[in-house]
Amino acid sequence: MPPAQAIRDALTAGVPAERMTLSTDSGAAYPLYDAAGRTSRSYMAGPDSILQTIRELVKSGLGWGRAAMCATQNPADLLGLERKGRLEPGRDADVLVLSPDERVERVFCRGRLLVENGTPVVYGAFGGHRSE
Question: Which domain holds residue 4?
Answer without folding.
Answer: 1-80
